[in-house]
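Priority: medium. Attachment 1 of 2:
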């Protein structure tokens, strides 16, 4: 690996999130989320609620609203990572509050159901339910400016959600930000074959992740589960795709961005050098700060195009 020196120095302090021991990884993921520094919420309203989901199953969302906006605000649906098998609302709280304040926007984090207890399509159904709630029920939202932002497995869900909404006629999504998206179950790219001993996420994790998530699938894997399998990526919202140099998911993210471009979708792509999957948890590293600043700028331009 070609690691950024600041990230390399932080390796001994990183938690073991490899999912061969899923129960243990879930505990450690929860501890990591609990230790995250929460920015001052100030007057931001943070409210947990349940929205109607598929088959009567409620979906937990955490809604962050800026204080007293002058008019309708854009909304951002936030989908956490965790390989479809771990993570939750706590994982994105600090980020949601920060984005709510700095964009500004109504930020809705989704506590979607996890595999293997709830395999595909449960997580996607929950993301769809949350998006439909934001578009129809959330107060103070400009429905022409709803974006989706997903990290890792959440990036795969965000990509799948835009496909689903295109095919079902809405609600409209104006922008998709895909951070190290997990979109291809075939794991046959050079990076997927090469990175079998990388921090936080490696090939073995990716294999287990897809086995758990697709355990309910019969027959061919649908594109709504693995968007890289989609035959048609046209008429999707503009995208920003970020990938990490030393990441099994790197090449599928690059390939998905290229496929979007070939389908006529506007795409911005950034590979962050010296990084590994979710190395942004080393928040003090210069490359992590640069990524965070760029993400904020990208979302501002997408959700406040006249700003």
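Attachment 2 of 2:
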């Amino acid at each position: 690996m070609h690691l950024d020196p600041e990230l390399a120095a932080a390796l001994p302090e990183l938690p073991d999130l490899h999912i061969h021991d899923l129960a243990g990884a879930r505990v450690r993921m929860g501890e990591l989320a609990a230790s995250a520094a929460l920015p001052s919420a100030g007057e931001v309203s943070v409210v947990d609620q349940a929205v109607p989901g598929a088959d009567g199953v409620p979906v937990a969302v955490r809604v962050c609203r800026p204080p007293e906006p002058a008019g309708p605000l854009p909304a951002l649906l936030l989908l956490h990572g965790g390989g479809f098998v771990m993570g939750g609302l706590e994982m994105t709280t600090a980020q949601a509050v920060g984005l709510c304040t700095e964009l500004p926007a109504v930020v809705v984090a989704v506590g979607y159901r996890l595999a293997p207890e709830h395999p595909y399509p449960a997580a996607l159904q929950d993301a769809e339910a949350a998006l439909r709630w934001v578009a129809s029920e959330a107060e103070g939202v400009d429905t022409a400016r709803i974006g989706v932002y997903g990290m890792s497995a959440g990036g795969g869900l965000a990509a799948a959600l835009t496909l689903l909404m295109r095919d079902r006629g809405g609600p409209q999504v104006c922008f998709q930000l895909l951070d190290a998206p997990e979109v291809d179950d075939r794991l046959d790219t050079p990076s997927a074959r090469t990175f079998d001993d990388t921090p936080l996420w490696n090939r073995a994790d990716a294999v287990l992740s897809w086995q758990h998530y697709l355990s309910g699938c019969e027959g061919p894997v649908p594109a709504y589960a693995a968007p890289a399998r989609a035959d048609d990526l046209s008429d999707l919202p503009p995208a920003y795709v970020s990938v990490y140099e030393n990441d099994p998911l790197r090449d599928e993210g690059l390939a998905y961005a290229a496929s979007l471009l070939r389908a006529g979708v506007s795409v911005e792509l950034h590979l962050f050098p010296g990084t590994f999957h979710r190395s942004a948890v080393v928040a003090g590293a210069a490359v992590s700060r640069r990524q965070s600043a760029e993400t904020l700028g990208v979302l501002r331009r997408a959700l406040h195009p006249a700003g």
